[in-house]
């Protein structure tokens, strides 16, 4: 019973629901209270205890439905040789432990089943033959000879489950990573259990003249189908427990370090989730309201006020403090063809940080510069970026013009609390760089950060003006992957602490 | 005195009792109350504004016939306002009294050492329960027969305050440096926290709570809610207006109408003796359900088609 819940929690963790040990304990006491009988109640209850955000709740719902699928799982088909009591025992045992296949897994001795070799019996042929059911009536039935056949006719469900688990270990089913592998693992487990020998037996039995033999072949055929179903369920469970997430994590770690320019359209969705998750992490880290106490400066009015209640005996001293301001960020993005992708993700990043960076103003340019903050206020991030790219994206890059426009637009609003981020490759098509404008911005602002998506060795080659711009920046960084982007933004937040 | 154990015996019975107190809810919500009672865990309720988060706590208190202690959170709320405060005035008086009796106490004492010794024997009640002014949290712990503690809009408070709550939520106790630990009486309070999600609640707090998300109800449920709250309204009109609100929620609005607005609207229509929706009526009463001029303007052109749709259903 407990194993079942632990497995479920493991599957949940796999599905990116964060569950602490304390919550696991809560889940146990919850299950003790409500029991497993009422599925909806169980779902409602665990849904209150385990997932703690809306996203997690959605993940929980699908995970629960998959995990506790309680599909109509027929018990081992009862036959004449299997007496009634045994069958019902097997059934009730099965009902009590829906996932005992996995539970028994670890403790089982391995390799009980010797896989039959050779005998490459064509499955198609067999199923075709078993398809046309011969009415043989009840009566005597032969003894199965293959190991798997014997197990299937003799054993109860638990024994079969244990055999499946053992075979699963043999073929390392816990290494399953992608859903496309489900079929492969199902086949491998069946093979490890000795399906080939069973096939062969059924094949020969079907051809036999003796009626008891043919009866056996039909019976075994049914049992084989049942076994396949079982194994499929088992693999499905294992997949939920072990896989899914590994594949995604792999992709994500790759994406993090991939140059953003080489991204394909189909990755955007995933990447956006990733960016937003990274942003949320930063928000959590920096959303505390910061207060800096100025050491040693007495706040006289407040001290007097506070100490009125002590009959003016001053013993509760109040110190001056300042609330540090949330950074004001001006982002200037080159959205011409070569850098548009970087601009996209930096903007997503900045706007996902709304909680810690409420004052972001963004500007886009290729030759002329315009403010695009409004687009973000009115649309969701996706649309806003698309609109911005369409509006400003065409035209040859002219940094000089863009900087002049920027000065005209809002130089007055840049003050000591403002951080200006410029994202661009500084390739000015040999035009006038207008470094004097950048110097003006530099003098007024708190920080000017230049992010260049090109690798460092490429800077200053050709028409790149990096060498002229960098003296007027507080910080110059390469920023071509998400990881680098995250580092820059994190440092930006830190500098305002 | 309500028979709490029998009311809370099952989810179904809880749901029924909540309904008799005019709180119509889904199974999920009733289950939350059920678990909160049996596991003795606080419930953190999230959801859009106006879906009845606060109402659930109020109704639960009413249903169990327990006192409701409410703590409204806001920025800058600190322990002096939430937990306890010393009664400074009384303490001042006490020192005055002490000054006068000091001579008697110290009479005949030889030397400084003995005076101090006598003073120590005198007993220190300066920081004691008598001088403690209990604020909501402490009050809730001290309730003899348990109570419902509602910590409203916890997301509006500071991070520091959240940390302050942790001890209460996990162990139903608070530590007061001068006195020691105050534990809850025999029955700890039933705690509800509500949040409008203006900021992320910390993991530490979430971990200690059951997490209930109340979404907007489906049409059938909302009709029952309106029926429970405004029983006088004609069934036909009720159906139409709930339908209308649901269609409205589909639109891209700054603030979508919530249940409380549905109920307000139903009351308004009742007051106007309306028996069916028409676009003129809707236009005139629009400001009851939409709270932003911007929203009202954006809905204006669609009014007719929305009304027709609601009528046809």
Describe this protein's structure.
The complex is a heterodimer of chains A (497) and B (313). Chain A is an alpha/beta fold and 497 residues long. Chain A contains 22 helices and 8 strands. In chain A, the strands form 2 sheets. A 6-stranded mixed sheet of chain A has the order 5-4-3-6-7-8. In chain A, helix 20 links the parallel strand 6 and strand 7. The longest helix of chain A has 32 residues. The two termini of chain A are 50 Å apart. Chain B has 313 residues and is α/β, with parallel strands linked by helices. Chain B has a 5-stranded parallel sheet with strand order 2-5-8-1-9, with helices on both faces. A two-stranded antiparallel ribbon of chain B has the order 3-4. In chain B, helix 12 crosses helix 16. The mean pLDDT of chain B is 87. At the A-B interface, helix 2, helix 3 and helix 14 of A face helix 3, strand 1, helix 6, helix 10 and strand 9 of B.
The quaternary organization reads as heterodimer
- Secondary-structure element sequence of chain A? HHHHHHHHHHHHHHEHEEHEEHHHEHEHEH
Low-confidence stretches of chain A: 79-132
Give the class of chain A from helix and strand content and strand pairing: alpha/beta
> Helicity range of the residues of chain A?
40-55%
How many strands in all of chain A? 8
- Low-confidence spans of chain B: none
What's a concise summary of this model?
Chain A has 497 residues and is α/β, with parallel strands linked by helices. Helices cover 53% and strands 9% of the residues of chain A. In chain A, strand 4 and strand 5 (369-371) form a beta hairpin.
Task: Note the main attributes of this structure.
heterodimer, A: 497 residues, alpha/beta, 6-stranded mixed sheet, two-stranded antiparallel sheet, 22 helices, 8 strands, 53% helix, B: 313 residues, 5-stranded parallel sheet, two-stranded antiparallel ribbon, 16 helices, 12% strand
């Amino acid at each position: 019973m407990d194993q079942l819940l632990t497995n479920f929690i493991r599957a949940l963790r796999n599905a990116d629901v964060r569950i602490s040990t304390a919550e696991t304990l809560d889940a146990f006491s919850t299950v003790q209270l409500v029991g497993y009988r009422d599925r909806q109640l169980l779902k409602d209850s665990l849904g209150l205890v385990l997932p703690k955000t809306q996203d997690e709740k959605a993940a929980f719902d699908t995970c629960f439905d998959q995990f506790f699928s309680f599909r109509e799982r027929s018990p081992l088909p009862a036959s004449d040789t299997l007496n009634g009591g045994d069958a019902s025992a097997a059934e009730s045992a099965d009902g009590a432990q829906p996932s005992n296949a996995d539970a028994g897994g670890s403790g089982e001795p391995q390799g009980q089943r010797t896989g039959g070799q050779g005998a490459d019996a064509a499955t198609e042929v067999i199923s075709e033959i078993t398809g046309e059911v011969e009415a043989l009536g009840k009566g005597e039935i032969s003894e199965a000879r293959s190991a798997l056949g014997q197990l299937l006719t003799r054993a109860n469900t638990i024994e079969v489950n244990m055999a499946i688990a053992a075979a699963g270990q043999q073929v390392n089913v816990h290494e399953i990573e992608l859903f496309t592998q489900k079929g492969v693992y199902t086949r491998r487990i069946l093979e490890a259990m000795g399906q080939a020998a069973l096939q062969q037996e059924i094949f020969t039995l079907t051809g036999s003249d003796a009626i008891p033999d043919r009866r056996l072949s039909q019976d075994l055929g049914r049992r084989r189908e049942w076994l396949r179903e079982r194994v499929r369920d088992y693999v499905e469970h294992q997949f939920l427990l072990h896989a899914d997430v590994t594949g995604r994590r792999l992709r994500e770690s790759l994406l993090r370090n991939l140059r953003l320019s080489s991204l394909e359209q189909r990755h955007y969705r995933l990447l956006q989730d990733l960016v937003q998750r990274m942003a949320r992490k930063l928000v959590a880290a920096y959303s505390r309201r910061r207060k800096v106490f100025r050491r040693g400066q007495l706040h006289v009015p407040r001290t007097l006020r506070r100490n009125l209640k002590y009959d003016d005996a001053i013993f509760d001293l109040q110190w001056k403090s300042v609330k540090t301001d949330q950074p004001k960020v001006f982002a200037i993005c080159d959205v011409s063809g070569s850098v548009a992708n970087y601009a996209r993700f930096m903007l997503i990043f900045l706007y996902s940080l709304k909680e810690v960076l409420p004052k972001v103003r963004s500007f886009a340019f290729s030759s002329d510069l315009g403010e695009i903050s409004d687009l973000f206020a009115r649309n969701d991030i996706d649309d806003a970026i698309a609109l911005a790219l369409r509006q400003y994206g065409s035209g040859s890059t002219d940094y000089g013009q863009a900087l002049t426009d920027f000065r005209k637009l809002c130089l007055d609003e840049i003050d000591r609390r403002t951080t200006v981020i410029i994202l661009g490759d500084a390739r000015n098509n040999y035009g006038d760089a207008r470094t004097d404008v950048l110097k003006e911005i530099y003098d007024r602002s708190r920080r000017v950060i230049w992010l260049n998506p090109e690798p460092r060795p490429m800077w200053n080659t050709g028409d790149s003006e990096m060498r002229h711009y960098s003296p007027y920046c507080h910080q110059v960084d390469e920023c071509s992957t998400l990881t680098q982007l995250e580092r820059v933004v994190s440092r930006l937040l830190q500098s305002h602490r | 005195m309500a028979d709490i154990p029998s009311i809370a015996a099952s989810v179904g019975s809880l749901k029924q009792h909540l309904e008799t107190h005019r709180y119509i809810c889904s199974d999920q919500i009733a289950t939350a109350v059920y678990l909160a009672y049996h596991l003795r865990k606080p419930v953190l309720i999230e959801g859009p504004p106006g879906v009845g988060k606060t109402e659930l706590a109020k109704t639960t208190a009413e249903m169990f016939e327990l006192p409701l202690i409410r703590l409204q959170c806001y920025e800058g709320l600190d322990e002096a306002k939430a937990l306890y405060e010393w009664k400074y005035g009384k303490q001042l008086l006490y020192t005055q009294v002490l000054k006068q009796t000091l001579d008697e106490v110290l009479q005949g004492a030889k030397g400084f050492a003995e005076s101090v010794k006598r003073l120590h024997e005198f007993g220190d009640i300066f920081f004691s329960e008598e001088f403690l002014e209990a604020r909501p949290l402490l009050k809730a712990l001290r309730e003899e027969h348990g109570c419902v503690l509602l910590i409203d809009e916890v997301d509006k408070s500071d991070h520091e305050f959240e940390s302050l709550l942790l001890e209460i939520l996990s162990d139903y106790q608070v530590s007061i440096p001068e006195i020691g630990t105050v534990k809850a009486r025999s029955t700890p309070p039933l705690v509800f926290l509500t949040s409008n999600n203006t900021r992320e609640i910390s993991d530490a707090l979430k971990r200690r709570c059951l997490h209930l998300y109340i979404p907007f109800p489906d049409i059938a449920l909302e009709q029952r809610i309106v029926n429970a709250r405004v029983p006088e309204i004609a069934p036909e009109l009720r159906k139409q207006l709930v339908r209308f609100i649901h269609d409205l929620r589909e639109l891209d609005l700054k603030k979508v109408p919530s249940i409380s607005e549905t109920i307000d609207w139903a009351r308004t229509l009742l007051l106007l003796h309306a028996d069916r929706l028409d676009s003129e009526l809707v236009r005139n009463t629009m400001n009851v359900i939409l709270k932003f001029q911007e929203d009202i303007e954006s809905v204006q052109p669609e009014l007719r088609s929305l009304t027709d749709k609601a009528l046809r259903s």
